[in-house]
Amino acid sequence: MNGSTDRYADIKNRICELAGSDDSILAVAVIGSSTRKDTPADEYSDLDLIIMTDEPERWYSGEYPEMLGEVSISFIEPTLGGGRERRCIYSGARDVDMLIFTHGQFVEALEKGVAGWVMNRGYRFLYDSRGYEALAEKHVDMTVKRPSMTEEEFQNITGDFYFHNIWAYKKLLRGELWSAKMCIDAYLKVRLLTMIEQYQLSAGNTDVWHDGRFLDRWADTSVLGELEHCFAHYSTDDCKQALYATHRLFARLASAVARKRSFSYPAGAEKCAAEFIGISAPEEVFESGFARCEYIGKDNAVLHVWKKEAHFSDYRLPVTASLDMLRKHKGSIFIVDARNGFEDVREDVDWGFEYFLPELKKTGCEVWGFILPEVSNIEGEIDLWTREIEKNFFVIRAESYEQILRAAAERFGCLEYTGSADATLYYTYKGCRYRLASQPYEPCLYIIDGERIVCTLHNAFNTSELIGAFSEGKTVRAIDGRIYDERTFCRLLASAVDSGRSDMDVTFAARQAGI
């Protein structure tokens, strides 16, 4: 086993001795890592056995497994060809998997090619009383093949995936965290793995292992980089981020597979799922081997994710793409995920300070967030940028996207509302709690501190309209056509409170707020 002593030698010897004295044992074959040359067994490998027998029940519930050694853990599970598998842990944490077949089951598995799926990377017969080895040589193709999916299969898996994006998000909204997480980190990941396999097969002659084995060896580095963000802790915010990342990675790979195979890509299904879970439509995404940029409508934020360190055009192209999104969506937050890289070339720093930051200021962006661990290996670069950014922007550094959003909300205040019966709406900002009021016959919104009207916004909104929209995650439209979600509405209120004016038109307040 990879140049070391065979940890399973005693078990192999015992089963051969047992087979030689027991006519019910027809044959024993070894498969798996102990027979492979390309990825040989190591100290963590198990022993995979195929056992052909006339008395399978004696391996499931009888004494046979105990005759090979002291069993610490044991259980049974279904396996290929209609057989069952006994899995045991012997002394020394040695894992032995025994695939149990009758003569008929094994011959059928060989002839139909089912057995070849587990034998085509290598096998060796330890004992053979019926000539199975010759039959295996005839039927087992030692060439490992991973068939490409048909267009019908492609359409089905993409529909399945995008459907369950919505399903999982609904579970999160209803507070069913366990169900949501199991869908995001189990069900959807199986579909994602299938698309990773098809993406690699489309890209070239990749040896794609089953069930994600050795994924870190055969998958593209850009895929591995994105996978880091696709799994969640047991929290609602983390599950949302994992769902967003899983959706983005699957969509990228699926669209690439469709182009390569000339399949029709279900862009409508992707957009439907993206809009429901609150991430940007496909046309508002930029992606290269170095970065991914997208506008997230529900948060009015541009998320810029560095996949790895980038320089010159590899750096400036995605930064410019983010800038274009920030220009299109006035007043949005700019969030940079720098966990996987940044830049350190002086020419790029100069370009960023002399061109990008002045242009960013023109977009109305006020908040710049960095997603970084508490201690990062690029502290010097971040400090350099932070000192310059803080001259014109509110800088937030946090370990997650959601933490930055919460900090940004505190920056501009937050809303709270009572039930719809009295439709009372409150706005908390800089330690003060204001009541918002309106009158049905006059399109004004009053910002009230105690009994004092701090500011009156003319041509504004009715509080019932605001509560109805924001409680359902929807937006409202002002008389001048501007559209407000809850966060941009808070920015409007912050501008009005900070102005010191007793009244102003809502359009003027919006311009002051950069909306």
What tags apply to this protein structure?
18 helices, six-stranded mixed sheet
Report on this model:
With 515 residues, the protein is of the alpha+beta class. The chain has 18 helices and 20 strands. The chain has helices at 9-21, 57-60, 103-111, 116-119, 132-139, 151-173, 177-203, 215-218, 221-227, 236-261, 267-277, 313-328, 346-362, 379-389, 401-412, 463-470, 486-499, 506-513; strands at residues 25-31, 47-53, 71-78, 84-90, 94-101, 123-128, 285-287, 291-296, 301-306, 333-337, 367-371, 394-398, 414-417, 425-429, 432-439, 442-449, 452-458, 476-477, 483-484, 503-505. The longest helix is centred in the middle third of the chain and has 27 residues, at 177-203. The N and C termini lie far apart (66 Å). The mean pLDDT is 86.
Q: Helical percent range?
A: 40-55%
Radius of gyration: 31 Å
Give a count of the beta strands, DSSP E runs of length 2 or more. Answer: 20
Described by the principal axes of the CA atoms, the overall outline is elongated
Number of helices: 18
Strand order in space, largest sheet: 3-4-5-2-1-6
- Mean pLDDT figure: 86
Intertermini distance: 66 Å
Question: Per DSSP, what share of the residues sits in E-state strands of 2 or more residues?
Answer: 15-25%
Q: Major beta sheet, specifics?
A: 6 strands, mixed
Give unreliable regions as ranges. none
The SS-based structural class is alpha+beta
